[in-house]
Structure formats: structure tokens, C-alpha cells
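Example record used in the benchmark description.
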Amino acid sequence: MPSKSDTSPPRKDKRPTKAQISWLARGLGEPGGKLPLFTTEGQRVNDRMVKSCLDHGWAEPWFENPLKPNWLVCKITDQGRAVLNGKNTG
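Model output (C-alpha cells):
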């Protein structure tokens, strides 16, 4: 079975889950659309959820965190804003 390429276009076949909506919405009020590394309860945001949002084009990597290089700092995209507003981006 062929492996999925990192250069494949963003997936547009799915609506975000409640957890993804909550995470993406938190970026709307942040400078530059920065998405949080932690939940409102202080837990690390689920890496699989972040990757899914990246794969769908709702978020994008922003910069590397020099203090925690394995933590991905992301920001919400225009496509992420559109999906939160209920607009079909596909």
C-alpha cells in the first residue's frame, strides 16, 4: 500500500470535531492566530488532533519552539477560520 506523502493537498472531506473546533476557536482571539499548546484544563493538546488539523489545512506550523523543540507551535489558517464560520471550503 502506498504511503501518504507529506506534500499531499489538505483534506477537505471532513468537518472538525468538537475538540478541534474548541482548539481552533481559541486561536481567533490570539495575536497572529496562535493556537494553544495546552487545553483549558492545563493538559497538553493531543498531538493527533493537531496533526489532523494540519492535514485538513485548518492550522499551519508557525515557528519552532526553542525551549521545547518537539512541541509544534501552530496558528489558525484562513481555511480554519472559514470552517469555524460554517463556510464550505471544499
